[in-house]
Amino acid sequence: RERVRAMFYHAYEHYLESAFPYDELRPLTCDGQDTWGSFSLTLIDALDTLLILGNVSEFQRVVNVLQEGVDFDIDVNASVFETNIRVVGGLLSAHLLSKKAGVEVEVGWPCAGPLLRMAEEAARKLLPAFQTPTGMPYGTVNLLHGVNPGETPVTCTAGIGTFIVEFATLSHLTGDPVFEDVARRALKALWKNRSDIGLVGNHIDVITAKWVAQDAGIGAGVDSYFEYLVKGAILLQDKELMSMFLEYNKAIKNYTKFDDWYLWVQMYKGTVSMPVFQSLEAYWPGLQSLIGDIDNAMRTFLNYYTVWKQFGGLPEFYNIPQGYTVEKREGYPLRPELIESAMYLYRATRDPTLLELGRDAVESIEKISKVDCGFATIKDLRDHRLDNRMESFFLAETVKYLYLLFDPDNFIHNDGSDFDVVFTPYGECILNAGGYIFNTEAHPIDPAALHCCRKRKEEQWEVEDLMREFYSLKRNKKFTLKRASDHGEGESTGDSVDTSSESGGEKRSSKKNTHSLLSCPSQSFNSKLAVLGQVFLDNT
């Protein structure tokens, strides 16, 4: 664990020193480059890893840096998929963890806050991509102008089906359903266009819904679609998403699984098209563990681990019958997927083999890819040549999953025995009780946070603003404000908004108040609050 911590800081400090504010570090030349947009991406991606390592002071500093320095109003063509998983996911995760990290949160958190507003702003920049006849998004969007007129309509399956975790979280926290709606529509469009034998291909035309690449498998181009059906089902307790995955799982076992390996097949016929294992497929045992299929997960994991031991890393493509790398696909960009599966499986089984994989990964990465300015992508696992790039997922995922594998007492592994109670304008809410859902960039989302914020936010905040304004005039008087019920504007509830934070912490209860200065429970919401902007008291 301490070696993993040292790895993180070796990479992180050199990014800050040599590459910030660029997206990524170039470790061989000790400088930086923009890769996915120009968001200081490595900083956003590494933020929640800082907290998992226990570094609250640096977390707080970075939150301030990002608030001041990141701008999404830029004329840049950005990947819709990558911006979502890295930027939106990273900001949402950091937002939900900020109180735990000692950041002074604003009134209404977790339903409000600067990082949440940044995540929402970034996600809104992606929404134009979803305006297609099928609801499946374009792969690229210009952050200033929307979808470029000449943009290709061909998008990979993962680029369509990897939004529900971040977008549903955004909708629940902000009260705006548009994000979850577009993510669900895209998921269902893929489901509707699966083949008669139950498989999806690799690339599809988002205008015509015609499959352009018809290879079906669990790896690159498809992977996180399946992952998000499972994680979306768990996050939202959604049986429909889980049943979709289980149907796919049957077809995947029937047509692509051979001796605990998964091959690529033609999506309509089921005939083998590529007998290769891709390093991106190594997430699958971890996903199987999430649905409780531990035996199959371990068998597949051990197959993948033999490849790691052969090369000291996972080549991008591995020819299964030949037992060797595929030409021009011999590299290992320090991907996290096998380590991710080891972390999940170790939580489920405590099998020491999984710790051995973790140790092997630390040894390999340190021996082969460590350079003076960080850790470099391995260009070729056969001769250990390096490439001048350190992907942001190295700090977001690879180091994080390694650290969590070796840190059984980390707050991320909380079993629910420890939690925080937070008071929001919508009532009491439980946070940090565990059960975190990692997005596909390893940004943990607290599922309990989705239950903290009521949908009908606007009315509630209107009440809050008026109340605060009024209270500043009548600071000496105690009052409560009745709230319109969620079910109808004319009903009253016993809930009252707690304003103790603004009055020296003095506790107030509606029961002790015989006369509430602002209460018209029998009237509709609008007439209760204002006419021509004036608030009416009981005695007017």
From TrEMBL:
Tree of life domain = Eukaryota
Q: For the region Disordered, what residue ranges are annotated?
A: 483-518
Alphabetized InterPro entries for the sequence: 6hp_glycosidase-like_sf (IPR012341), EDEM1/2/3 (IPR044674), Glyco_hydro_47 (IPR001382), Seven-hairpin_glycosidases (IPR036026)
Q: Which cofactor does it need?
A: Ca(2+)
Catalytic residue positions? 82 (proton donor), 223, 316 (proton donor), 337
Pfam families (alphabetical): Glyco_hydro_47
Keywords linked to the UniProt accession: Calcium, Endoplasmic reticulum, Glycoprotein, Glycosidase, Hydrolase, Metal-binding, Unfolded protein response
Q: Which GO terms describe its molecular function?
A: calcium ion binding; mannosyl-oligosaccharide 1,2-alpha-mannosidase activity
E.C. number: 3.2.1.-
State the compartments where it is located. Endoplasmic reticulum
The UniProt transmembrane annotation reads none
Identify its protein family. Answer: Belongs to the glycosyl hydrolase 47 family.
Q: What is the name of the protein in this document?
A: alpha-1,2-Mannosidase
Which species does this protein come from?
Crypturellus soui
